[in-house]
Amino acid sequence: MSIAEDKLVDIHNLHIEDQKQPSLVEKWGRRFADAKKKKRELERKVEVAFSNLVNTIRQDPEEFGLDKKPTETSIKNIVLVDKEYSKVYDEYLGAKYEQDIMEVGRDTISDRRATIDGEIKLYLSGYYSQTTRSGEEFQQDELKRNKDKQKRLRRRDK
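Predicted structure:
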């Protein structure tokens, strides 16, 4: 299920929603932890790719079009435009985005608890037991009450 489906609360089955909550917290907590782990692994992969490329450049800077003693900035600039490094870094950015989405999911499911509690409070206070009337129904009831009042007044006056 998606976060959009998991965050919904069926107000007619609050007892079931309350029972599902711990499982949903675990589900989205695990998804977040998995995404976080993947991001950390790719972060490490980026660091290794960066270090390997820097070492390769330092061993033969002239092969990369640099002086024999390249500056840190020039080395970094070569690393940043390297295709392999860019590929690994893009994977890392994708994992970071996925982690951010899973964090939103985890937080949304945690907030769902407050929604369930609010719905339970509304139910206990009788909010859902009150029937609502349309404006037309209200007007008809008012007309009937006024007619009844007029009849009672006429009887009393006789």
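Summary: The chain has a mean pLDDT of 90.
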